[in-house]
C-alpha cells in the first residue's frame, strides 16, 4: 500500500471511558492532527452524537453542504461504549451534513470499530477535506502510527463492494488473516451514486469465524465518505477488551452490568425473543396492528405478510444457537446472521454469500415495495450492504415511485419498464440501477424529496398542469420529512408517533421516539398533554444513548418486571437506574437521571440550532405527509372503512357524521391534520420553543449554548 | 358463547397453533382467559408484568368482562428499537 502521509503517536490511555483526544484528518491537505479538547468539553458534549454536533457546529457553516470540502465526517463512540461487562455497548455514531436533508445527520452503528478506535487512543475521529484520489486511513494503536494511504486496487468486483473491499483490506493489513484486534468502516460504489449511501462497520466474529457487518444506514453518511475520496478506515489495537474503559469504579460497573444481564436473560425469552429472532420478530406484531408499511405505507396488513414473519427466517436462513451480540458481552445478542445463502438474482447470481440480517427495517422496506418473498429480502439485504446503500431509503424511494406509477404520475415510458407494486423483477432491476447510477436508478438514487420534484416537473410538462398542483398531490404520499425517508412504521393511528417522526431533528427515524404501542395499543397517552410530555422525555433519553455509545434495545425492548409497579411503565425506569449507575461507576460522576436528561437536552438544543442554521429547524420542516396522518387516499380509507367511521363517530357524535363515504374520508383527514397542528403547538411549548419551533433565548442560555453564532442566528430569526 | 385466543410469535411456535377457542359465560373475564391458557399450555411464559392483554387490537385490563366473539391476545411489551 502506498503511504501518502504517516505520523507516529503515543496512544492516550482510556481513563473513566475517555481518552480526551480527538483525531482530525484533513484529506485535502493530507494533514493528521491530534487535538486535546478543553477540560469541560466532555462534560458538556458527553460523546457520540454530542461530539459530532459540536465539531460540526464549530467547523462548518450555513453554506456547507454534504459535498463541501469543509464538511466533516465524524465517527465517535462515547464513554460507555467499550465495556463487555454491560450489555449493548460497542455503539458509535457517524455524523455529518447529509446529502438527503442538507443538515446534520447521525446514524448509530455497532461492531468493534468504535471500541477499537477508543483503545487506539481516540474518543472521536473527524475527517474533513476531499482527496483527489481514493484513499484509506489506517489508525494503528499497536504500531503507534496513523497513515493516509492510496486505496489499494484489487480487482473491479472487490473494489466496488463495501463488504468485499473491507474484507480484502483487513486481510491485507494483517498478514492475510482476519483478526479481532482490527475493524474497519467502508463505503461501496452505491454510496457514490445514491444520496443514501451507508457506512458499513466490519469486524471479525470469533464464533462464526467470519467478518460481520453492521450499518450506519440513515441519511447518506456513506455518500459523504465516498465524496471525500475515503474508501475505508481501519483501526487496530491489541489492548485487552476487559476493563478497557478503565472505569473509576470497576466493581460498580460489574454490579450494574450483572443486574441488566439478569433482566435480559430472564425477560427476553418471555417477551420479544430478540436473542432468537433478532428484530424480525416485530413483523408479525406490526402486521397485526396495521403498522407494516405495505405498498408505500398504504396498507398496514396483508394476507401475504406471514411469508415475512420471523419463523420463516429462523427456519430457512438464520444460523441457530449462536450468540450474536454485535459487541462482546451483550446477552441480548440480536444481530442475527446467515451463512451460505445463494444469490439467485442480480449481477452476482449464483454466488454463495454470508448475510448479516435482515433486521425488521429491511423486511419492512421490502413490504413497502409490496413484495413478500423472503429470499428476495435476503438478497436485497446483501446487495444493499455490498453496494453501500440504505435498505430503508432504498425501499421507501422505490415504493414512492411505484405509487407514482400506480396513480398515473409515471408510465412505463418514463421508467423504462412496468414499475408496479409486488414486481420483484422490476424492484431488483432498479436496485442495481441505483447502485450503478444508471437508467431510472439515477433518479431514484436521489431519494423521495428530490424524486417528488422530478416527477412534478415531468408530469406537469407532459400534461400541461402546474407543478405546484402535482407537487401538492405527491406531498400526500411521498414519505419523507426534512428530506429523509420514513423508517418502517405506519403512524396513521398514533398521533404521538406522528410527532415522533415529524419533530425528529434528523428526519423521520424512530431512534428519537417510538411511541406507537404506548399510544395506539396501550392507550397510555390519552391527551395531547400526555403525548407532548412523551415527545419531550423520550427523545432526550434516547439522545443520551446515542451520546454515550450504547444500544437502546436492552433498555427499551426488554421490560423490567419491576416497571409494572411504577407510574409510567413504558419508561422502564428500574432498568434506566442500572444505566445511570453504570455511567457513574465508569466516569466517577454522581449524576441522577435528571442530570442525564439535562445533558441530553443540551445536545438536543444544539442539534436544533444546527437545523435552524441549515433551514430545517422551523415549524414548516416538521410537517408530515398526509399518509402519515391518516388514509391519504380513498382506497386506504375503504380498506378500513368500518374502523375509520367508528373513529369519526367517537370524535363527532353519531348525528354529525356525513352520509357519504367520500365526505367521511374528507372530514376524517381534516380532523387528523387539525390534530397534528395542535400537537405542534403544545410540543413546542413543552420544549421551550416559539410557536414557529425556534428555541427561545432563555432555553439556549440555560444550556450554555449562546455563543456568537447562536446569538446571531436567533437574531436573524427574530427571537 | 365463545372467544378466540390468538397466539403470535413464539407463543404460536410453542403451542403449535394459531388460536384456541374458549367457552365463556356472562361473567368470564380476561384473567379467566389468561388462567385458561396457563392451564392448557403450562410451558408458555405468561408472567404478570411481562405481557399485555388485548381484546380486538385494544389493551384490556385483566378484570374486563369478555363478550361473545372477542379476540384476545397476550402480547409482549413492545416499546420500539
Question: If interface size is counted as residues with C-beta under 8 Å from the partner's C-beta, which chains form the largest one?
Answer: A-B, 39 and 25 residues
What does the radius of gyration of chain B come to?
12 Å
What is the CATH architecture annotation of the largest domain in chain A? Answer: 4-Layer Sandwich
Oligomer: heterodimer
CATH topology heading of the largest domain in chain A? Aldehyde Ferredoxin Oxidoreductase,  A, domain 1
Q: Which secondary-structure class do the elements of chain B indicate?
A: alpha+beta
Q: What's the CATH topology name of chain B?
A: Ubiquitin-like (UB roll)
Helix content of chain B: 10-25%
Distance between the termini of chain A: 54 Å
Instruction: Please trace the helix and strand order of chain B, writing H or E for each element.
Output: EHEHEEE
Order the strands across the largest sheet of chain A as they lie in space.
Answer: 1-9-8-13-10-11-12
Q: State the shape of chain B.
A: globular
Distance between the termini of chain B: 39 Å
Shape of chain A: globular
Amount of beta strand of chain B: 25-35%
Q: What's the story with the biggest beta sheet of chain B? A: 5 strands, mixed
Q: Count helical runs of chain B.
A: 2
Question: How do the helices and strands line up, and which of them pair or pack?
Answer:
The complex is a heterodimer of chains A (719) and B (81).
Chain A: E1 3-8, E2 22-26, E3 31-35, H1 41-45, H2 48-59, E4 73-76, E5 92-97, E6 104-109, H3 113-119, E7 124-128, E8 135-140, E9 145-150, H4 156-160, H5 162-172, E10 182-186, H6 189-193, E11 199-205, E12 210-216, H7 221-227, E13 230-236, H8 250-267, H9 274-277, H10 282-288, H11 294-297, H12 310-316, E14 337-342, E15 352-356, H13 360-368, H14 374-387, H15 391-406, H16 412-415, H17 424-436, H18 441-444, H19 448-463, H20 467-477, E16 480-481, E17 484-485, H21 495-502, H22 516-521, H23 528-548, H24 553-556, H25 573-587, H26 593-613, H27 626-629, H28 634-639, H29 641-652, H30 661-686, H31 697-702, H32 708-716
Parallel strand pairs in A: 2-7, 8-13
Antiparallel strand pairs in A: 1-9, 2-3, 4-5, 4-7, 5-6, 8-9, 10-11, 10-13, 11-12, 14-15, 16-17
Helix pairs in contact in A: 2-23, 2-26, 8-25, 13-15, 14-17, 19-20, 21-23, 21-30, 23-26, 23-30, 29-30
Chain B: E1 2-6, H1 9-15, E2 19-23, H2 30-40, E3 51-55, E4 58-59, E5 71-76
Parallel strand pairs in B: 1-5
Antiparallel strand pairs in B: 1-2, 3-4, 3-5
